[in-house]
Amino acid sequence: MGGYTGEAVVSEKSAAVVAQHLDPDRYEVHKVHIYPGDWYLEDKEGTKWPVDMNGFSVPMNEEKISFDGVFNIIHGSPGEDGKLAGYFDMIGLPYTTCDALTSSITMNKGYTKAILSGIEDLHLARSLQLFSHRPENVQNVLSQLQLPCFVKPNNGGSSIGMSKVKRAEELEEALIKAFQEDNQVLVEEFVTGREFSIGIYKAAGQVHVLPATEIISSREFFDFDAKYIPGVSEEITPGRMDEREVERVKQIAEKVYLKLNCKGSVRMDYFLEKDTGKFYFIEINTVPGQTETSLISQQVRATGKTLKEFYTALIEEMWV
């Protein structure tokens, strides 16, 4: 749990829920916090024991704690962008999330869209990827894309640094805000429609698609406050789709999961465009939130499963 970005506070909340629901009859659970220059295990008394990064073990008095596997619940860097996955791969330690390559690619929204182009029935909003903050960016965006548009950090999460731009004079400020979070920015045309988010995971070698959640935000878009402050948005699980739409989204979600070579639990956000019903990909999260009210948690419960059963399936899959 933890991390190197502003999402660390969300990670800590997710980790508290995961730890609470892990099966104590099957697993001995230790909470490991990862912060810049400060990796430590926190014991039941609140004592912090430094992690030996040579092999991801923890010397404690006369014993040494080693691990059979890692339940990774770090949102953002280094848990979601491939850095931690690469480290675990090098020391041979299994983990519950995507491998280093998939994690690093999917953290980059522009690259992810490029890989997913060509999937049948999957639509991608027109976009422009900016690699540096330059004066000509504003004119380039206005000449190539239509307003309104979203401006977002290309490698960010939890909608931090993201803006919806309706007028040309708002664009420069939105770009500054996004470039403060990342050195790459994605500008994407707005799609009018209903927003959904759907969980996908692999267990017992099979890809499973959870019921989608429809998101109705009182904000301009599903921003950080809408995601984490109760009452700012309404979330309907399962979302309001007819049987044909449900089946179509399920097929597309599975194709996306397989094409990106995902592992563990991921969450894909999408729009159903107004009038046309076209499926528009927004982004994919490879370490989605796991708080009690998080979308994945809602979707798991909608299937009749408990979080304990869900987490057990994720853990067992990493040893397959």
Give the helix/strand layout.
Layout: H1 8-21, E1 31-35, E2 38-42, E3 48-50, E4 58-60, E5 63-65, H2 83-91, H3 100-107, H4 109-116, E6 122-124, E7 127-130, H5 137-144, E8 149-153, E9 163-165, H6 171-179, E10 185-189, E11 193-203, E12 206-209, E13 213-217, H7 224-228, E14 233-236, H8 243-259, E15 265-273, E16 279-285, H9 295-302, H10 307-317
Parallel strand pairs: 6-16
Antiparallel strand pairs: 1-2, 2-3, 4-5, 7-10, 8-9, 8-10, 11-12, 11-13, 11-15, 13-14, 15-16
Helix pairs in contact: 2-3
Report what the structure shows.
With 320 residues, this protein is α+β, with helices and mostly antiparallel strands. It has three domains: 8-97, Rossmann fold; 104-124 and 192-317, ATP-grasp fold, B domain (D-amino Acid Aminotransferase, Chain A, domain 1, 2-Layer Sandwich), CATH 3.30.470; 127-189, Dna Ligase, domain 1 (2-Layer Sandwich). It is 30% helix and 25% strand. The chain contains ten helices and 16 strands. It has helices at residues 8-21, 83-91, 100-107, 109-116, 137-144, 171-179, 224-228, 243-259, 295-302, 307-317; strands at residues 31-35, 38-42, 48-50, 58-60, 63-65, 122-124, 127-130, 149-153, 163-165, 185-189, 193-203, 206-209, 213-217, 233-236, 265-273, 279-285. The strands form four sheets. Strands 6, 11, 12, 13, 14, 15 and 16 form a seven-stranded mixed β-sheet that branches. A hairpin with a 2-residue loop joins strand 11 and strand 12 (206-209). Helix 2 (83-91) runs antiparallel to helix 3 (100-107). The protein starts with 7 loop residues before the first helix and ends with a helix. Its cofactor is Mg(2+); Mn(2+). Mg(2+) 2 binds at residues 283, 285. Its EC number is 6.3.2.4. It catalyses: 2 D-alanine + ATP = D-alanyl-D-alanine + ADP + phosphate + H(+). The active site is at residues 7, 158, 294.
